[in-house]
Fold each of these.
Amino acid sequence: NRRWVLASRPKGAPVADNFRLEEQPLPEPGQNEILLRTIWLSLDPYMRGRMSDEPSYSPPVEIGAVMVGGTVSRVAQSNHPDYKEGDWVLSYNGWQEYALSDGKDLVKLGETEHPSWSLGILGMPGFTAYMGLLDIGQPKAGETLVVAAATGPVGATVGQIGKIKGCRVVGVAGGAEKCRHAVEALGFDACIDHRADDFASQLKNACPDGIDIYYENVGGAVFDAVLPLLNTSARVPVCGLVSGYNATDLPAGPDRLPLLMGTILKKRIRMQGFIINQDYGHRIEEFQREMGEWVKGGKIHYREQVTEGLEKAPDTFKGMLEGKNFGKVVIRVAND
Ligand code: NDP
C-alpha cells in the first residue's frame, strides 16, 4: 500500500520535501470492515490549507499522517453485509492506494458511467459552485456575473449556471487557451487573461454595465480589478482566495482596506464566505437532482485533467495552485 504522508509543513509554496512516499503492508479488513482500493484521487486547493497548522475550519493533517482527499474507490474485499467486491463508492481515503472502512462515511455510486465525476461536477466542486452562486449570488437574468479560475471545476460550473439563469458571464483565466475554452466550450460571453498587462482595463471593457455578482475564487489582483466595477447591491460569494494560499506576507502596496470597506458601505454590497459541506450539507439532494439533469441534458460541459499514477500527486498538486491544470484535477491511482 503506497501512500503520501505530510513530511513537513510548507513555508510558501509546497516543495517536494513536504511530502514523503511510504510503502506499508496491505491492511486486513476485520469483521464488518471493507478494504477499499483507490481508483481516483481528487486534488483540490483546500489541501494547501490542511498542510498548514494555522487555525481554520478543519484541523490540519498531522506530520506523518496521510494527506487527506476525496477518492472514488472499489471494494476490494468485504466483511460487511452491505458491500460486495467490486462496488463503487465515494470515499475520503486520501493520497493512498488502499484503505479500510466500516462503511459509515461511504456513498454508494451504483452503476456509474463516469465514476470520477463524483469528485467534480457531480460532487464537492459542483455543489460549491451551485450553492455559492444560487444561494449567495442570487443571479437574475440580464445581470453581469464575473468568475475567475474560470476553467476549473468550480469556476466553469459557476459560469455555466450563470448562463442558464440568463446572466452575462465574464470569466477570468490564466492564458489564451483557457480563455478560448471558456468562451467556445463553456459558452461564456467573454473571458479575460489575468496575466495580461492591461487586465484591469480589459475587464472593465468586458463589463460595460458593471458587475452585479462577483463569485470570488482567487482574490489578489483579480479582486483589485473587480472592486471598482461592482454595482450598487452587488453580491460577492467568497468561495476561495487561491492567489494567496502560498503567501507568507501581506500583499505589497497601499492598504486597500479603507477602499474595500468604503465600497461595501456606499454600494451596499453583500459579501459572504461559505464552506460548502458545513453550510450546505443538508441541501446536497437538491443539487444532485438539478445538476444531474443539467449534465444529462448536455447543458453543462465538464473537463477533467487526468494525471496517471499516485507518484505524481505532489507535483500535480503544486501545479494546480499555480494554474498549470486545465480542468478538474484527478489522479488515476489504479485501473478499474
Ligand atoms: P481550480 O482547478 O480552478 O484550480 C485553481 C485555479 O486558480 C488555477 O487553476 C488557476 O487558474 C487559478 N489561480 C491560481 N493562482 C491564481 C492567481 N494568482 N490569480 C488568478 N487565478 C489564479 O480549483 P477549484 O475549481 O477546485 O477551486 C476554485 C476555488 O474554489 C479555490 O479558491 C478553492 O479553494 C475554492 N473552493 C472553496 C470551497 C468552499 O467550500 N468554500 C469548496 C471548493 C473549492 P488560472 O490558470 O485560470 O488562473
Amino acid sequence: SNGDSVVTLLDYGAGNVRSVRNAIRHLGFDIKDVQTAEDILTANRLIFPGVGAFASMMDVLNEKGMTEALRTYIKEDRPFLGICLGLQLLFECSTENGQVNGLGVIPGVVDRFDSSNGLQVPHIGWNALKVREGSGILDDIGNRHVYFVHSYRAVPSMDNVEWVSSTCTYGDDFIASVGRGNVHAVQFHPEKSGDVGLSVLRRFLSPKSSMLKKPAEGKASKLAKRVIACLDVRTNDKGDLVVTKGDQYDVRENTEENEVRNLGKPVDLAGQYYKDGADEISFLNITGFRDFPLGDLPMLQVLRYTSENVFVPLTVGGGIRDFTDANGRYYSSLGVAAEYFRSGADKVSIGSDAVYAAEEYLRTGVKTGKSSLEQISRVYGNQAVVVSIDPRRVYINSPNDVEFKATWVTNPGPNGEEYAWYQCTVNGGREGRPIGAYELAKAVEALGAGEILLNCIDCDGQGKGFDIDLIKLISNAVSIPVIASSGAGAVEHFSEVFEKTNASAALAAGIFHRKEVPIQSVKEHLLKEGFEVRV
Ligand code: 1PR
C-alpha cells in the first residue's frame, strides 16, 4: 500500500468509530484497520479513537497482545494520535473501573471530575483550550471551541508538564491534549468538532502542511451554551421520509387532504444546519412508538449519509424499546441502539420507554438494570443516553392539589390558577401518565440518563418562547445537562432561557426549518448578550 495516503486505525470494536473513519476519508485518506499487533508496529501513522470503558479497553488490548506493540510504537516516536480514551491510555492508570493500569508513558492518574460542588458530569459540549507554546497539531486553534464528552480526565502537574500541549477548564484545569515529537493525543473529539476538529486531524495527517504559523495563544473559557437543530422525521402518506413539524405535536396540515407537513429532506437539512453552525443535530423518529425502528431502514440510511459530511454530534430518538415483531422475533432495545450507533449516531434519545422505566423504579424503589435506559447506559456510557420528556402543563390552584411536584407559574392559568404541574406523556403526546416531569427527571438521572431533552407540548411550535417555569424546575432538580426545547420563535428566547434557567443547551425546530431565524443570528445574539458560544 502507498504509505502516504494510508492511515492505520486501531478500532477494537467497542463502539462507534464511524465518524472518525468518515472524517479521515473526508480529508482524502484511506484507512487500514489494525488486525494484529504486527499492524501497529508496521503503521506509518496510527490513530486510536478509544471508546467505551477504560478497563474493557485495556482487557481487549492485553488479550490481543497490542499493549506492548503500542508501547514500542510510541517509544520509537512514530506518528500517533490518540482520541479520548486514546489519550487516557497513555497515563499510568485510570480509576474508572477501580484502578486499572494504562501504558504508563505519561506520569499521572486519570480520575473522575469532582462533582461535589454541583459540577455537571459528564463534561459534555463545546469548550475552548489554553494552548501552550509549540503545540503542533493545535496550531492556530486560538479561542475556537472543540467538542468534549467524558467523565474522567487527567490533570496537569510538574511531572507531566513536558507532555501537556493544552488544558481546558471545567471545574478545575484538566489536560485537553498532549504532544511530544510525533506522539499526540486529545481528550476532545476532533471528528465531532466541526472545521476546527477537521484541521487538527489534517495537521496530524499532513505534518508538512502544518506548523507554519506560530501557535495562537488560546485562553480557556467556560463551557459553551449549545444551540441544537432538531429534525422531527416521519414517513408521509406517499411513503417518503420527511422532516415535519408539529403545532403542539399535531403534524398534519389544516387542509382537506390533512397531509403530513413536509419541511424538507432530513439529510439535506442536517447538512445545511451543520454548515450554518448548529452545535448538534437531533433526529426524532416521531412515529417510532408505532413502527419498529429497525423496520425503518431509511432512518439508518439518514444517519449513515448525514455522518459522512456532518462533523458535530448526532442524536437519534424514537421507538427505542424491546420489541417482538409479528413473527414472534424479539429485538432488544440494546440491539436497536447498537444499530443506531453503528450507523453514525453519538447519542440515542429515549421517550416513552423511559417513562415506563421511571414509573416502575418509583413504584418499587429497585433498579432492575433491565430497562432500555439502564442497559444502553451501562454498555455505551451515560453520555450516550438522552431522555426526551414530553410534558403537558396542568394548572392547579395550590401545589398541595397533586402528589406531583408543582411550580408557581409566571402566567396564571385560564381560571387564574397560580400553579402547575407538568404531566408526562407517551406515544408522541397521545397518552398522559401518572408521573410529573420533575419526578421523571430525577428518576431517569438515577437510572443512568446522561442528559435530558425537555420538551413542552403546550409551547411546541408556538414561537412564543420556552417554558421558563418548567425548565427552571427541571434544570435545578438534576445535575445532568438539560436541553431546553419547544417554543423558540426569536433570538431573544435563547438568551432568556440561558439567563433564567440552568439549561445547558437550547433546541429549536420550526424557526430553523421555516428559515425565519438563522442559527448564525442566534449565536451572534447570544455572544452579544455575553454568553459563551461556539462561533
Ligand atoms: O417515545 O421513545 O418513541 O420517542 C418519540 C420521540 O419523538 C420523543 O422524543 C418525542 O418528543 C418525539 N415526538 C413524538 N411525537 C412528536 C410530534 O411532534 N408529534 N416530536 C414528537 C417532538 C418536539 C420537539 C420539537 C421541539 C421544538 N417534537 O423535539 O422539535 O418542540 O419545536 P419548535 O422549535 O418548533 O417549537 P419514543
